[in-house]
Structure formats: C-alpha cells, structure tokens
Amino acid sequence: MPAAVRAAKVYKVFGKRAERAVKDLEAGATREEVRAYGATAAVIDVSFDVEPGEIFVVMGLSGSGKSTLIRMLNGLLVPTSGTVEVDGTDITRLKPAQLRQMRSQKVSMVFQHFALFPHRNVLENTAYGLEVRGVPVDERQHRAAQALELVGLKGWERNLPEQLSGGMRQRVGLARALAADTPIVLMDEAFSALDPLIRRDMQTQLLELQSELGKTIVFITHDLNEAMRLGDRVGVLRDGRAVQIGTAEEILNDPANDYVAQFVEDVDRTRVLTASSVMAAPIPVVGAEAGPRAALRTLRENQTSVAFVLRRDRRLVGVVHEKTIGPAVRTGQKSLDGLVDTDVQRVSPDTSVADLFAPAAESSVPLAVVDDAGRLRGVIPRVTLLAALAGNGNGNGAETADAGHDAAAAEPADTSRTEPDTAEPADTAEPAEDADASDRPAAGADPAETPAEDPADPPPDTGPAPPDAAGEERHGGQGAAR
Ligand SMILES: Nc1ncnc2c1ncn2[C@@H]1O[C@H](COP(=O)(O)OP(=O)(O)OP(=O)(O)O)[C@@H](O)[C@H]1O
Ligand SMILES: [Mg+2]
C-alpha cells in the first residue's frame, strides 16, 4: 500500500528568485542568506511519509512553515521543488481539474481560520464539500447534520457563522471536513480557537473518530501537549526545516537537538507516557494452580507481602496477601481457593500516566497492566508512577516486563526481585495532587492564537484554486473541505 501522503525533499520559497534560493539552500545557504535577495524560504527540504490510518502531527512555532507545508499536501500550494504524493499519485503534476477531483475525493482540510461562507448557514457551510461533489441535497443535508451533531453543534444548523463564537466556527470547519468523508483530513490548528475543556473533548473525539473510521490525519499545532497527545508521530519544524520526526516518546526521551529538548521541557509527561512505558516486570507471580505453601515461599523469597496470581496463559486472577496465606498454610489448606483477592485495579497498556493516579490512589497493591485478553503485561507500583513524573520512569521499562513474561511460568520462585516492595503504603495525597497539576496547560505551550474576528478572514472563494496563488491561501483559499 502506498503511503497516504508522502512529501519528498519539498521546498517552498516565496518571493523573488525562488528557484535560485532552492539551489542555494541545497548548497548550504541559510534562510537569512536567501532572504537577503528577497526570497522567503518557508519550507526547506522536508520529507516524510504518513501511513494510512496514521495521525501525523506537524509542530512548530509561529512562522516555522506549518501552514505552507500542509497547503502543499492538497495542492493549494505547489512546491518550488520536490514532490508530494497522495495515495501514490504525484499531485504536483496534476492539472487544476484533476487536483479538484483529488481533493473532493481524498483530502479534506480544516483551515486555521475556518474559512466559512458568511451568507450560508451552518448546515450549508457544513454540506459544502458534498455539494461540490454533486451529492443530492437531501443526502448532503443529512450527512452535514450528522457531522454537526458529532461536533456538538446540533441545534445551530440554521444560524449564520457570525452568530457563532470562534470556537463554534472552528467546529463547523471540522464538521465540514467530517461530512465530506474523505480518507485523508488535513487540519491546520483546528482546535486552537477552542477553550481548554472543549479542546480536550475535541481531541478525544478526534482520536475516537480516527480509531473508528481509520482516517489518515495530518494535524498542525503549535501546542506541544496537543501534538504529543494526538500524534502517532510528530514532526518538529524549525524555520522551515524538519528537525525531528518520531513518536511522541522518542521526541520526549531522545530529542534530536537542544532546540527540540527545550521545546519538550514543558511537556506534560503524564499525558504522553503510557502505562506500558512506565510499567515494571510483574514480579513476583504465583501460578493459580499453586498451593498456599508455594505461594508463601514466593512471597518470602521476594521479601514482599503480595504476589500476582496468574493462570498458565498469564491471564490475571488477582493477588495473594501474606496475611491470608500464612494462616492458610498453618491450617494445611491445599489450594488458593478463597485466598485470591480479585479486587485489583487493572489498566490497559495505552492508559496515559495522568489517568493512572486515580486508580493507583484507590489501590494498596500495584496497578496491573493487562492486555485485551486479560493477560498481565506488567505492574505499576506507586513509586514507579512518581519516578515517571520526575522524568526517570523508564528504568523498569517494557523490555524488563517482557523478560518477566517469559520467566514467569507457574513456578516463578527463582525470579529475582526488582521492586523493593510492591505493596506501597497508602499515601494518596501526593499523587492525587500531581494528577491535578497535570491538568494545567504547560506554561507557554499555547501562545494565544487569536482567531481573528472574521471580517479579517474573508470567505473562501468558490472558484477553482490557482494552484500556486501565494495570496490566495491567505484568503481562506479555495474554500474548505474539499
Ligand atoms: N503567501 C506568502 N507569501 C509570502 N510569504 C509567505 C506566504 N505564506 C507564508 N509566508 C511566509 O512563510 C513563512 C511560514 O509561514 P506559515 O504561515 O507557513 O507559518 P506557520 O508555521 O503556519 O505559522 P503560524 O503558526 O503563525 O500559523 C513565514 O515567514 C511567512 O511569512
Ligand atoms: Mg499557520
């Protein structure tokens, strides 16, 4: 399968002597040097692939070239050099009519400044992409209404854009892209006009939509936390160049240079790191078939007061506590029947660390990280959670846990001990407070992106987009969700 979107050595230079500027940049000239003769290098030698179904986030400060880059992905701008492929087709070679067709079938875009038609109501704006495609009026209104409901704008169908707040208009832009139902959606700062709570809601909705509908999404933001939350992979742009492309965790844990490192300093790690990245090997464990005597031996050897009880296929049954095992051994009980405490907090490997605090606070034993099949993948003692917050939570990472899987058969008595005491004393105050703190937006992460009150944002133009009209896309381009 070809990449959904591929950019290969893409340059976009505005202003004078663009071609020459590309040559000079290739030969090592800086942005400032080409600027001296009137060329603005907005995007410089950027290459990446976006796989079908992936959310690829492009992040960078204002002016780093994000909007320019995303506009090249649907042909609203033509690269000065390099190629852009959509679904295997080099779109830089398409004729305007082919380009329009490609957009209406494959790529919708949510614009940074909404680009709504002022004289069309919300429903008509939302149905626009379908209208362009010639979808009959009943069907397009039905689909537009559905999309509006999805973004929480049911009841606003007949209002005009000017009667909506900035955040609501942004949601209309999103609804329009959703209604168009293309496999690829480009989103330029699509959530930046929303207040934090709605914004988080929309992010969650986007993630859900993406996993339900499998859309390929290229999402632009200058909010690092948003980038890290949404992106399967994130590309960091600086002054037009891609300085790092990787998963959120790669960028966080292994920044390519000081610039990226400074950028990620403020990131809320608890939203990026997941249970699987901070979990420890599940030691000790006891086989469900074992008797109290073997269980007690395991506890003693590991100098701990609790052990996880697993079936042979590693499905988690619960935990045993020394305080109940000891007496059972003395009374000569032969099986663990009635001794296994099944009240264990289970979390999935993908749970963000931020969402682990509440279950951890409620549990006196480590959290159990279980996969879809209910198998124990690792455990998270509260100390590990605190260490992850402090930025060194990967010491007992996934590898260790995997090693644990193999080692831990029904008789894991000889496995060595990695956690001093898996049963942490209940001390809920601290983690809970930290969890609260994690809800704060990181300082400086989201410089006010003031969505201009719309007169400054002229309506989209309905005509065919001149593929490289530099002025045109400053004007909301060729309308929206095409
Ligand atoms: N049509 C244009 N003509 C001339 N220069 C342009 C044009 N569009 C963008 N630029 C320049 O290209 C650079 C990148 O702009 P771009 O809009 O892509 O940045 P951005 O990362 O989207 O910024 P923001 O976060 O503010 O939206 C800037 O220096 C900008 O001035
Ligand atoms: Mg922009």
Average of per-residue pLDDT values: 79
Low-confidence stretches: 392-482
Number of DSSP E strands: 16
**CATH class category label of the largest domain:** Alpha Beta
Q: Work out the helix count.
A: 20
Largest sheet, strands/sense/barrel: 6 strands, mixed
Distinct ligands = adenosine-5'-triphosphate, magnesium ion
Q: What helical percentage do the residues reach? A: 25-40%
Architecture (CATH level 2) name of the largest domain = 3-Layer(aba) Sandwich
State the CATH superfamily name of the largest domain.
Answer: P-loop containing nucleotide triphosphate hydrolases
Shape: elongated
Classification by helices and strands: alpha/beta
**Share of residues in strands:** 15-25%
First-last Cα distance = 23 Å
In short:
This protein is α/β, with parallel strands linked by helices and 482 residues long. It has 20 helices and 16 strands.
Question: What are the main properties of this structure?
Answer:
binds adenosine-5'-triphosphate, Rossmann fold, ATP hydrolysis activity, binds magnesium ion, six-stranded mixed β-sheet, CBS-domain, 20 helices, single chain, 482 residues, ABC_transporter-like_CS, alpha/beta, ATP-binding, 35% helix, elongated
